[in-house]
Amino acid sequence: MKLLAFITDWAASLPEDRLLAAFKDYLSLNQTPIPPGDDNRLRMLLRVCKGFRTFADVVTKTGVLFGPDDTYAFDPKAVDKVLVKGDRNGYSVLADLQNELTGCEWTAEAIEALLKAYCEKHNLGMGKVAQPIRVAVTGTTISPAIYDTLVILGKDKTLARIARCLEKR
Predict the structure, then answer these.
(1) pLDDT per residue over 109-143, tens digit each?
(2) Distances (CA, A) of 97 to 25, 39, 52, 54
(3) Contact status, residue 129 vs residue 115, Cβ threshold 8 Å
(4) Could you read off the pLDDT of 19-32 as tens digits, one per residue?
(5) What pLDDT does 9 receive?
(6) What pLDDT is attached to residue 169?
(7) Where are the alpha helices (DSSP H) in 34-122?
(8) Which helix (H) or strand (E) holds 135?
(9) What's the pLDDT score for residue 5?
(10) Which of 52, 83, 102, 127 could bond to 90 as cystine, CB 3.0-4.6 Å?
């Protein structure tokens, strides 16, 4: 455990370019779903996973965003807890947001503003809105911040994954 703490501190202390080079080395030596070519996207992954313990943690947290839209599995516990529980309210939130996200500018700021406005309009906490989206697009309840997750995933893939999730209800 002490070694993991040292690695975490080491990664946090590196200049961004050196951390990126190390991450690219990791990706070239390990089979992951994350494509190594886009430096801006890799920098974003490292930024949104800040505080990671190992590069494998970055892959675990974000790898699902790079696979085909129809191949990731839905965690049954996450589906029950987030989408089904409470009279299937999670599915209702997804159905409502599907149309609103279609017209949204695809930046973290615009997505955040849209989701906050939705929360206020429907008197919901952010968890009741972000978690259904997270389960729909990753199959689990774990990902970077929902705004960053959706930006990394992209608009078309986000909407396709939400549609796939809604088909399963």
Answers:
(1) 999 999 999 999 999 999 999 999 999 999 999 99
(2) 39, 31, 30, 34
(3) yes
(4) 999 999 999 999 99
(5) 85
(6) 84
(7) 39-48, 55-62, 76-78, 85-102, 108-122
(8) helix 126-138
(9) 83
(10) 83
Structure tokens, 78? 């996450």
The domains of the chain are located at: 2-66, 76-167
Cα distance between residue 10 and residue 68, in whole Å? 33
Mean pLDDT over 144-160 rounds to 95
CA distance linking residue 66 with residue 44, whole number of Å: 14
Answer whether CATH 3.30.450.20 is correct for domain 76-167.
no
Query: Which three-class secondary structure state does DSSP give residue 25?
Result: helix
**Rounded Cα distance, 87 and 109, in Å:** 31
pLDDT, tens digit, 9 for 90 and up, residues 76-116 = 999 999 999 888 899 999 999 999 999 999 999 999 999 99
Name the nearest CA neighbour of 142 among 61, 74, 39: 61
Distance CA 108, CA 145 (A): 9
**DSSP type of residue 50:** T
Largest CA distance in the chain: 49
